[in-house]
Specification:
The chain has helices at 3-22, 67-70, 74-87, 101-116, and strands spanning 33-45, 48-61, 91-92, 95-99, 121-131. By secondary structure, the protein is α+β, with helices and mostly antiparallel strands. The chain has a single domain, classed as 2-Layer Sandwich (Tetrahydropterin Synthase, Chain A). The chain has a 3-stranded antiparallel beta sheet with strand order 1-2-5. This is Tat pathway signal sequence domain protein.
């Protein structure tokens, strides 16, 4: 096979790849999700600020909501999450390097009802938790 034919075949394969990737598969209808990265939340224990944990989240959107509709509201979700974390900290007792994912998720789903409507966010997935300080902290065993 000569080089021209090889390059032409490779070019056609690359051009067809995005079309195949964007076409929906019959069996998998994955719900859209909005990524929220780098929200710094406090770890408060005994009435004192002990640490900050930076979390990355994925908001799984409800029926009828698209990422394009929800992206402009990302700042409101961040604000609601920070306010909730200061009001009732998501602290794990005895561990200053991580947050309670269930409490964080429940607070953000509840806040989403006021921000973008009831059922707009079905669940919140905590993708990553990165503490500001890692040493000298008590950790749960």
């Amino acid at each position: 096979m000569n080089r021209r034919a090889l390059f032409a075949a490779a070019g056609l394969a690359l051009a067809a790849a995005p079309a195949r990737a964007s076409s929906p598969k019959a069996g998998s209808a994955e719900a859209p999700a909005l990524g929220v990265a780098g929200v710094g939340l406090p770890v408060i224990e005994g009435g004192r600020l002990r640490n900050y944990v930076f979390v990355s989240l994925r908001l799984h959107l409800g029926a009828g909501k698209t990422v394009e509709q929800m992206r402009p509201k990302e700042a409101f979700f961040r604000d609601a999450l920070v306010k909730a974390a200061h009001r009732t900290p998501f602290t794990v007792p005895g561990d200053w390097t991580r947050l309670d994912e269930r409490a964080l998720s429940n607070a953000l789903v509840a806040a989403a009802a006021g921000i973008s409507g009831r059922g707009s966010v079905t669940r919140v997935e905590v993708v990553a938790q990165n503490p500001r300080r890692r040493s000298g902290m008590p950790t749960a065993r």
